[in-house]
Amino acid sequence: MDVGKVFTDGARGALSVQSAAFSLAAIGLNVQFGFAGILNFGQVGFLLVGAYGTAITADGGAPLWVGILVGIAAAIALGLLLGIPTLRLRADYLAIVTISSAEILRIGVSSRSLEDFTGGVFGIRGFANSFFDLNPIPVGRYGIGEVSFDHRALWVMTVAWTCVILASLLVRLIARSPYGRMMKAIREDEDAARSLGKNAFSIKLQALVLGGAIGAIGGIIIAIDAQFTNGDYWKSAFTFFAYTVLILGGVGSVLGPVLGSMVFWFIYQALDALLRQSITEGVFGDVFTPSDTGPLRIAFVGLALMALMIFRPQGMFGNRAEALVNE
Amino acid sequence: MSEPILVANDVRKSFGGLLAVNVDRFEVAKGAIVALIGPNGAGKTTFFNLLTGFERRDSGVWRFDGVDLEGKPPHAIARAGMVRTFQIPKALARMSVLDNMKLAAPHQRGERFLISLARRSWREQEAEVEDRAIELLEWVGLEVKRADYAGTLSGGQRKLLELGRALMADPRLVMLDEPTAGVNPTLTATLLERIKDLRGRGLTVVFVEHDMDVVASISDHVVCMAEGVVIAEGSHHEVTSNPAVIDAYLGREHGERATVRS
């Protein structure tokens, strides 16, 4: 078995654009769930409107940067639209409304009636050339051994991870400010916060919008990297992977979602190489075939998450004392 | 009786067919410590919830220090200077005791999204808030616990924290819902001392209480509710010797029902 390949595949996964985009999605969830305690089960919907806002605008002939702003604005609008009617109600309502709206958006953009606008099932393609025209990195391959990337991939990765760093800095500033304190108070006990003069509804709405906008940047990055977006990519499983990343890293910690995403993608890609080789070499006998690799690794992720919850409920970088405090 | 700081008129609330609160008039004199007593189910807590915006009224108006507060949301009522605590204390468990206190300070610049990002613009105010929080923690005797998670405090300590936290919000009227319920006798004594101190700080206090010794020891004025209605008010002695109050607490078989005053 080629152990080296297991590690290099893992390392490439950890550094990938996908990993950066999941970091952003999880940072957004962290603002919403980790700080303000609101349950957004439709984070992928925010990424979708970010991606489509950008793609539709840029495809229509506007400059790409305008498209990016439209994508972020669309996520803000979605946050307000979902938050205003539901955030005054019990927490479950937001969860229900967000998960269903993410599904409505996914199915909506693929629908035939919107084909002129969203490209229907074919999606939108080739709208980000101007982004790649800006690439200052000379043509070539960069990296160490097998863990290397071409100039194109490196350019997207640089921009994507820069966004991750900026978003993390933003969250760090918030976390240490009275604004962050207010969000945590809402998470702990909304009524207590209200009894002390804090407008819980407004703070929750701000958290939803801010977390959604950060997630949308992740969506925009994925779309630009692929120069393509269609409905199939934005399934609800995306949201739950983002939650996995967040819980793995540590809910409520600033670096948790970022390192969580890198570890998640390392394990996910390394497992893929490991399982594929093991199955081919007959380690599992006839039980599995190479095509079982996909489902198997998801099962392993589930197992790992269960073990994490049992032995390390605060995640990798969360605060154990905090996780174990009695209500 | 000096001028009232809070006047409520015709406050009503029903749940289904039950008229839980039906208070024609409720007045609190500025600087007084007013006890709200009554048997279980008298509507005391519901009345508290209505006045502080946590429950929606069916009808009624109330004026606090010259401002009409009926129909306002809880945070607006708290900002107006009427701050409450809860029967079961609501400590913010996964925040430090000090953060619990600091949260409550009003008018914090750093509570705005964009301003929060510029530490320089709120650092000074934060230091002032922290000084005041520590001062109040010393006052309630929780200074040594400042770095602990509030979730590690005992029930009585949580009551003290809530009291300190309520003061941190800079109220003119504090509404305490059963401040000594479930608190051990030593801490109860501390709590009562602190509540008495509030008068010295120029505050007005309304509190719900079941323990008659507590009521006798700290209140200037007692209001008794039963079945949603104010049935008696006056000094502790006047109220506890009022036949309607005795009826409400002990049942009516003790004699003819006394005339209900409202």
Task: Please tally the helical runs of chain A, counting DSSP H or I stretches of 4 or more residues.
Answer: 15
Oligomer: heterodimer
Helix-strand category of chain A: mainly alpha
Shape of chain B: globular
What is the spatial order of strands in the main beta sheet of chain A? Answer: 1-4
Strand share of the residues of chain B? 15-25%
CA gyration radius of chain B, whole angstroms: 19 Å
Q: Compute the average pLDDT of chain B.
A: 92
* Class by alpha and beta content of chain B: alpha/beta
Biggest interface, chains and residues, is: A-B, 32 and 42 residues
Low-confidence stretches of chain B: 255-262
Helix content estimate of chain A: over 70%
Mean pLDDT of chain A: 94
- How many H/I helical runs of chain B? 10
Q: Give the topology string of chain B: H per helix, E per strand.
A: EEEHEEHEHHHHEHEHEEHH
Please write the string of helix (H) and strand (E) elements of chain A.
HHHHHHEHEEHHHHEHHHH
Counted beta strands of chain A: 4
Distance between the termini of chain A: 49 Å
Q: How does this model look, in words?
A:
- The complex is a heterodimer of chains A (327) and B (262).
- Helix content of chain A is 71%, strand content 4%.
- Chain A contains 15 helices and 4 strands.
- Chain A has a two-stranded antiparallel ribbon with strand order 1-4. Chain A has a two-stranded antiparallel sheet with strand order 2-3.
- The longest helix of chain A has 27 residues.
- The termini of chain A are far apart.
- Chain B has 262 residues and is an alpha/beta fold.
- In chain B, helix 3 runs parallel beside helix 6.
- Chain B starts with a strand and ends in a 12-residue tail after the last helix.
- The interface between A and B is large, with 32 and 42 residues.
